[in-house]
Design brief:
With 222 residues, the protein is of the alpha+beta class. Helices cover 55% and strands 8% of the residues. It has a four-stranded mixed beta sheet, covered by helices on one side. It comes from Daucus carota subsp. sativus.
């Protein structure tokens, strides 16, 4: 069998990069990882993603694929080893894409407004709570969003599992609380306890230090 070149350009602090790594590991695909400095992008990254110049980029046999959601679907369609990331049923696949769009469009946008306001934008907080409420209801009695195993929506929702908790601590505003979102909190524990996820995501301490260094004037960073 011809050895395939699989390389990921990413950053430890990027929730989007970690999506790609988790998907590759779930599929059992070996890859080379290239750490990028988010403030000083390499010529290779700009070459492979000239439009946005962002991580992640997946390089497969010399061909670059950018944007995490696009990469996740590419991984699922390219490698049939390991579990399917997207459901096989067309309706379930469509629903999974709908939930990922909700997370990346509505939740991410609200989180970014929350960050840029250093936790002061109440409208952003309300929108975050709105999306968390929708996700809480969607889980129903399931362990993961796709059932009993990690799938597309779970991988995309790592923003909730780790990053949101860290960010809210930095800015001193409690949004994601166990009492308010019990099913989502249980999902977070199950997701974070998955060995592949645990081995891939940065430590909470590392992420907390990163965000505090970016916002030293934030209330909880002082």
């Amino acid at each position: 069998m011809v050895r395939q070149e699989v390389k990921v350009y990413g950053a430890q602090e990027s929730a989007f990069s970690k999506r790609v790594e988790i998907a590759l590991k779930l599929k059992g695909v070996e890859y080379e990882y290239v750490e990028e400095d988010l403030l000083m992008k390499s010529p290779e990254l700009l070459k492979y993603n000239p439009v946005h110049g962002k991580v992640p980029v997946l390089l497969h046999n010399g061909r670059p694929i950018a944007e995490s959601l696009v990469i996740l679907e590419y991984i699922d369609e390219t490698w049939d080893s390991g579990p399917s990331i997207l459901p096989k049923d067309p309706l379930e696949r469509a629903n999974s894409r709908l939930w990922t769009k909700l997370i990346d469009d509505k939740l991410l946008g609200a989180v970014w407004k929350y960050v840029t306001s250093q936790g002061r934008d109440q409208d952003a907080i309300d929108k975050i709570n709105e999306v968390l409420g929708v996700l809480e209801n969607e889980l129903k009695a399931m362990k993961f969003f796709g059932g009993e195993s990690i799938g597309l929506v779970d991988i995309v929702a790592n923003l909730v599992a780790l990053w949101l908790d860290v960010i809210q601590e930095v800015f001193g505003t409690k949004i994601f609380e166990k009492e308010k979102y019990p099913k989502l909190s249980t999902w977070t524990e199950d997701y974070m306890n998955c060995s592949i996820v645990k081995d891939t995501l940065p430590s909470r301490a590392h992420l907390l230090a990163f965000w505090r260094s970016r916002f030293p004037s934030a209330p909880a960073s002082k």
